Amino acid sequence: MRLALAAIALTLAAAPLAVPAFAAPGPKVAAASFAQLKTPLPLPYNETANAQAQVATARARAKAQHKLLLIDLGGNWCLDCRLLAGTMELPGLREFLAKKYEIVTVDVGRFDKNLDVAAKYGLKDHFGGGVPSVLIVDPKTDTLQNAGRTAALADARTLSPQALSDWLASWVK
Length: 173
Known about the structure:
By secondary structure, this protein is an alpha+beta fold.
């Protein structure tokens, strides 16, 4: 059993992360592994926020500033969500993201809160693969740009900080 789990983990770690054909590498990050992230890891999700209002405000800012809207759906209980948040705070990546994206985090509780935000962009049933689910939205048309790939980072711990950086950068044209 342990051997089978190890083989699955190795396969997941080696599997390429699906990115658009026009993808360029993301900014180089200083952390080679998640063990090098600042601790404690961030708790990025405000559990009492009005998610609909936050998304609307972020979309308006993204549209005005000609950026993409990045909606991060997750929960503070989720290690993969916290690893993503910690990676997004790394120098270089943080500045890149600030130039290219308007980012909003949405707490989904235990898949029982703010589900209307996910449903608006076609996500249902635990978002098709878990959290974090990252929605890349064109704020001009309010359309999802990464349909079918929203849960690509739900197993963030099987990747590296650089792979997360590359995936986040891959949606920027």
